[in-house]
C-alpha cells in the first residue's frame, strides 16, 4: 500500500509530490504526455505584485518566503537548474508612472517588493526609467517538469498514464488502481469542465497566448514588463506574453492575440522581431480568483489541489506545504482556498 496517488504532473502535481516526498510519503504520480498543458506553456514568472492594478498578491509575503527554498531543493534533487532570480523590470514610461512607483515604496504593504528605479543603459528600451520588482523571478517550467519527472522515474514513483476514474475502485478506506492500493488520491489535473470526483467546479478559465520571437538587435537581461512582458530566453530569443481572454476557450492561437502581443512589444522596445512560435493555453482560474484545495465530502481519501490560475509558480510551493500539513492533520487549510467554500 502506498500513501498517495497523485494525478497530474503540471506545476501543481510537481510541488505536491515534492512536498509529500520531503515528508517521506510513498507516492505514485500519474501523468500522460500532453505537449501543450497550461504548465508547459506558462512563462514561469513569479511576481508578488499585480502590476497592472498596483496590488500585492494575496499572502505574497508568506509565498515568496518559500519560493526559492522549494525550487532550489527540487533543482538539487533533480540535478537541473531552472530557477532564475533576476528581478522583473517594470517599465516607467513617464513622470506619472515614476511618481506612482515611488509612492508605492512608502506604503508598508508594498515596500518589500518595490525595488529601485533605474535608468537602463539600453537604447532599445523605450522607457527612460524602470522599477525593479524585488523578489520576483522566473522558473523554466518545462525544464522543471521534465527534470522532476525523471527524478520520479528514478525512485519508481512515476507512471505514464491517463487515469480513467472508472479504474479507481474504493476498497474500504483505500483506493485501488490496477492492483495497487493507495490511502489517498490527489487530483492535480488542472482545468477540466467536469471533475470526476468533485463534479462542476467554479472555474472561470482564461485563455492565454504567448509568442516566442527572435530579435537579432535586442539584448535584454531582465524581464521587461509593461502591457506585456518580454522575457529573455537566451541568445536573441524572447518570450512575449501573455493575453487574457474569457470568451474564446479553444486551444488555438488567434490573430487578435498575436496583434495584441506585437503591439505590447512595440510599446516596450525599439527592435524588429520575427515570430518563431505562437502558442495558446487555458489557465485554471476560479470565479473568486483563489485556488481550489481540499477534500471530497462524498469520497473518503479523495483530494484536490487545483485552481492555481495565473500564478501557479508563486502559489504552489507555499500552498503545497499547507496542504501537506492538512493531510497530516497538523493544520487547517486556509478558508480562502478550501474547496468546501463552494461544496459545503
Ligand atoms: C499563456 C499562459 C502563460 C502563463 N504564465 C504564467 C506565469 O508566467 N507564471 C505563473 O505562475 N503561471 C502562469 N500561467 C498559469 C499556469 O500555467 C497555471 O497556474 C499552472 O500551469 C496550473 O498548473 P496545474 O498543474 O494545476 O495544471 P496543468 O498545467 O493543466 O497540469 C495538469 C496535468 O494533469 C494531467 N492530467 C489531467 N488529467 C489527467 C488524468 N486523468 N490522468 C493523468 N494525468 C492527467 C495533464 O496532462 C497535465 O499534465 C500561465 C498560463 C498560460 C496559459
Automatic annotation (TrEMBL):
Keyword Oxidoreductase: yes
Record's keyword annotation contains Thylakoid: no
GO cellular-component term (any): cytoplasm
The protein's name: FAD-dependent oxidoreductase
Assigned keywords, A-Z: Oxidoreductase
Single GO MF annotation: oxidoreductase activity
Species of origin: Phaeocystidibacter marisrubri
Domain FAD dependent oxidoreductase residue range list: 182-325
Pfam families, alphabetized: DAO
